[in-house]
Q: What sequence folds into this?
């Protein structure tokens, strides 16, 4: 299965709580660029999950509308910071082996998940806001994980 690790786009610095921070106008543009790039790359997500935080939900909604995703956006607590990669993978394990799965989350957890797959240090990995990585993961052969690509927002802009 291809896992698309996606960092939420730029959010407001202040809100009633961290969980309620909404995307800024810049963030909405970043999310549209992300969705348009997914469409241009012919990525057809089978599932789209987002952290319950508002900025991740909004990023997922814009990604869905601009990439052509027609399914339901599912809220996944395991995409919040502080959840281990094995706990996240346990939720995904029942999905079809060839599923294309979008995961909209946050730093530093996205870097930690990517480092887990690459057996590296999360300190060396940083996702741009609105950036993404694609990892191939086979739940039956988890040691055969492969990084397919890792792109910054600037590179996504150049694709569209």
A:
């Amino acid at each position: 299965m291809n896992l698309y690790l996606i960092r939420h786009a730029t959010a407001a610095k202040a809100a009633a709580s961290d969980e309620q921070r909404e995307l800024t106008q810049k963030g909405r543009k970043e999310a549209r660029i992300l969705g348009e790039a997914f469409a241009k790359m012919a990525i057809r997500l089978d599932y789209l999950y987002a952290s319950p935080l508002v900025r991740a939900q909004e990023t997922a909604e814009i990604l869905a509308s601009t990439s052509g995703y027609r399914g339901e956006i599912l809220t996944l607590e395991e995409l919040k910071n502080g959840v281990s990669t094995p706990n996240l993978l346990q939720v995904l394990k029942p999905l079809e082996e060839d599923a294309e799965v979008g995961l909209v989350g946050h730093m530093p957890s996205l870097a930690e998940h990517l480092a887990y797959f690459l057996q590296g240090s999360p300190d060396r990995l940083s996702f741009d806001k609105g950036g993404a990585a694609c990892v191939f993961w086979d739940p039956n052969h988890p040691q055969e994980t492969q990084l397919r690509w890792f792109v910054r927002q600037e590179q996504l802009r150049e694709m569209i």
